[in-house]
Amino acid sequence: MRVVASVSEYGSIVESIGGRYVQVTSVIAKPDQDPHSYQPGAQVQLALSKAQLIIENGGGYDTFIDTLRSSLHSSAPVINVVQLSGLDHGSADFNEHVFYNYPTMLKLVDRVEQVLASTEPTHAAAFRSNAAALTKQIQHLEAETGAMHASFHGDPVAYTEPVPGYLFDAIGLVNVTPTAFSHAVEDGNDVPPAALNTMLHLVSSRSTVRLLAYNEQASSVEAELVKKRAAASGVPVVGVTETLPVGMNYVEWQQSNIDHVKEALHQ
Ligand SMILES: [Zn+2]
Question: Do residues 240 and 126 lie in contact, with contact meaning Cβ atoms separated by under 8 Å?
Answer without folding.
Answer: no
